[in-house]
Design a protein that fits this description.
Blueprint: E1 23-26, E2 31-34, E3 37-38, H1 39-45, H2 48-57, H3 63-75, H4 81-88, H5 96-108, H6 119-144, H7 158-167, H8 173-186, H9 193-202, H10 208-219, H11 227-238, H12 244-253, H13 271-287, H14 291-311, H15 319-329, H16 337-357
Antiparallel strand pairs: 1-2, 2-3
Helix pairs in contact: 1-8, 2-16, 3-6, 4-5, 4-6, 5-6, 5-10, 6-7, 6-16, 7-8, 8-13, 8-16, 9-10, 9-16, 10-16, 11-15, 12-14, 13-14, 13-15
The protein binds coenzyme A.
Residues 223, 227, 252, 257-264, 311, 318-320 line the site of coenzyme A.
């Protein structure tokens, strides 16, 4: 940045900090594309494995390429026993996102290519992370419940295998496919907070595992990936469809937030929410339990109406809104909703870290180093006089 160039924008809204070839969000039209392909088409016809290949390699795989990628993913699902031992030492009450964030560099210590900074080695490390993260999340859930982790099932899809490792049972194929679509929808979203955190760490030449651990930390907050668990807690707190309108109205009147609504980039409906709403409705029909779908829909309607009254503008559901009841109906524990986001977003994060490291969308790698205006204590150009401890008045 040029000396004195005044581009200060707290929160960096709308400030472009890089070029990317990985995805694009059209916040006005509500369009999301991964490597040129519309998310709607990918959700309709693709799989998480194919989308991960696309994100990492910048083209849709041929049949041969996909077969190889799928079998490599399946063969990399196991995690080193030491990672499981590490998790077993943690308190059972530990937050699953904290467990995941701390276990990623532990996993990295067992990667023989950890410090190999070629593109090829980073693609291999990315594949290992995509393959192993679901196992780590499922294993932690088993460990904290005093159960042995379930071994990965080599014949199941990425999505189906996660549900299997979580419950110990073979998932029903419709649920596995719905979960696969959820993974596709969460895989990538341009320069969001966690991706930016990961890229920023990668820009220092830190390794992929360090960058991913940073991204996981950023995702854990309730204004980002943590919102899906918060949506479910809100649904449980409201408890009944009949209480929705008054709850939402009181919440918004008091200046509180309705989680899962609103977005920093979309000013229309998030295309992922549109697809997730349909999945939620289908799941409710299949399970015969309409409660969560109906309540989520009612909260959406009430929030939109109340928001219009209070702020005089529109608000729309984001990706986290319907995913909460979808995951709940899939019997995923509430505090695993955000780790589930992470096992999907790992593909996007890894693609971004590689793009950052190898300057694939810009002329050369650049260390992120923003600036800030100092607004703290000022005693003049020579700074404040340092007073020794014994001479300071209380
Ligand atoms: C995502 C989020 C942080 C984007 O925030 P943002 O870019 O600041 O949104 P905007 O600038 O458009 O907000 C405009 C106004 O709407 C309010 N608003 C935004 N989302 C809201 C929500 N979910 N509930 C109530 N009010 C909300 C803001 O507080 C702001 O009010 P103000 O003008 O009085 O300050 C915000 O919508 C939010 O907190 N949503 C809930 C958390 C969530 O679902 N996060 C996941 C995002 S994918």
């Amino acid at each position: 940045m040029e000396e004195g160039l005044d581009v200060k924008n707290i929160g960096l809204r709308g400030v472009k900090v890089a070029d990317t070839r990985i995805s694009d969000v059209d916040g006005e039209k509500g369009i999301l594309i991964y490597r040129g392909f519309n998310i709607v088409d990918l959700a309709q016809s693709s799989t998480f494995e194919e989308v991960s290949f696309l994100l990492l390699n910048d083209h849709l795989p041929t049949q041969e390429e996909l077969k190889k990628f799928q079998s490599e993913l399946a063969s990399e699902r196991k995690i080193p026993p030491a990672v499981l031992e590490y998790m077993k030492m943690l308190p059972k009450s530990a937050n699953p996102m904290d467990v995941l964030q701390s276990a990623v560099p532990v996993l990295g210590s067992y990667d023989i290519q950890l410090r190999e900074e070629t593109k090829e080695a980073n693609l291999k490390k990315a594949l290992r992370l995509i393959a192993k993260l679901p196992n780590m999340v499922a294993a932690w859930n088993r460990i904290r419940n005093g159960k042995e982790p379930v071994l990965p099932h080599p014949e199941l899809s990425h999505a189906g295998n996660f549900l299997h490792m979580l419950s110990g049972f073979l998932p029903d194929p419709n649920t596995a496919r719905d979960f696969d679509i959820c993974l596709i929808l969460h895989a990538e979203h341009s320069f969001n907070a966690s991706t930016f955190a990961g890229r920023e760490v990668a820009s220092t030449h830190a390794h992929l595992y360090a960058a991913i651990a940073a991204a996981i930390g950023a995702l854990s907050g309730e204004l980002h990936g943590g919102a899906n668990s918060e949506v479910m807690r809100m649904l449980l707190e409201i408890g009944e469809v009949s209480r929705v309108t008054s709850w939402v109205s009181e919440r918004l009147q008091k200046g509180g937030k309705v989680m899962g609504m609103g977005h920093a980039v979309y000013h229309t409906e998030d295309p992922r929410a549109t697809i997730l709403r349909k999945i939620c409705e289908k799941l409710a029909e299949r399970t015969g339990d309409q409660k969560w779908y109906e309540m989520t829909k009612a909260i959406e309607v009430a929030t939109k109406e109340e928001f219009r009254k209070i702020k005089g503008k529109e608000i729309y559901a984001n990706v986290d809104f319907y995913s909460a009841s979808v995951y709940h109906m899939m019997k995923i524990p509430i505090d695993l909703f955000t780790p589930v986001f992470a096992i999907s977003r790992i593909s996007g994060w890894a693609a971004h870290v590689i793009e950052e490291k190898f300057a694939e969308a810009q002329p050369k790698p650049e260390l992120y180093r923003p600036d800030a205006d100092y607004v703290g204590t000022y005693c003049g150009p020579e700074a404040c006089e340092y007073i020794p401890m014994g001479k300071r008045s209380s």
